[in-house]
Amino acid sequence: MRHQEPFNIADELGDLGYREIPPDVDSSELMVTHHHYDHSDADQDINVVFPIDVLRDLEAAGVIGGIAQKHIGYMVTRCS
């Protein structure tokens, strides 16, 4: 979330922490903060990597029973 501390991209092993994302988050408050891959599509629509709006639509349509009450974001590190 924009107000949360960004992941530490300076650590070559990656930031091993996580960030909690509440179920009622506005998708415009979500962002990618590291630069290990091209995330320009996610910058335009966060649902590319975290489909929260899609899940809400599926819930509203009765396709799924509900979405999780807590979501977790973490930094994916690249493997060499």
| N-to-C CA distance | 28 Å
Radius of gyration: 14 Å
The main β sheet shows up as: 2 strands, antiparallel
Strand content: 5-15%
Which segments are poorly predicted (pLDDT under 50) over 5 or more consecutive residues? none
Helix fraction bin: 10-25%
Q: Number of helical segments? A: 2
* Structural class by SSE content: alpha+beta
The overall pLDDT, averaged over residues, is 83
* Number of E strands: 2
List the helices and strands and how they pair.
Blueprint: E1 18-21, H1 40-44, H2 52-60, E2 71-74
Antiparallel strand pairs: 1-2
Describe the structure.
By secondary structure, this protein is of the alpha+beta class. The chain is 18% helix and 10% strand. It has helices spanning 40-44, 52-60; strands spanning 18-21, 71-74. A two-stranded antiparallel ribbon has the order 1-2. The radius of gyration is 14 Å and the shape is elongated. The relative contact order is 0.27. The mean pLDDT is 83.
Task: Provide the descriptors you would attach to this structure in a database record.
elongated; 80 residues; two-stranded antiparallel sheet
Brief sketch in words of this structure:
With 80 residues, this protein is of the alpha+beta class.
